[in-house]
Amino acid sequence: MTKINRETVIAEALDLLDEVGLDAVSTRRLAKRLGVEQPSLYWHFRTKNELLAAMAEAAMAPHATAALPTPDDDWRDWFLDNTRNFRRTLLMRRDGARLHAGSTPTGDLDRIRRKMNFLVASGVPEHDAQMAMLTASRFTVGSVLEEQADTAHPDTGSDLPADVPAIDHESAFEAGLALILNGLLSRTTP
Question: Residues annotated as DNA-binding region (predicted)?
Answer without folding.
Answer: 26-45
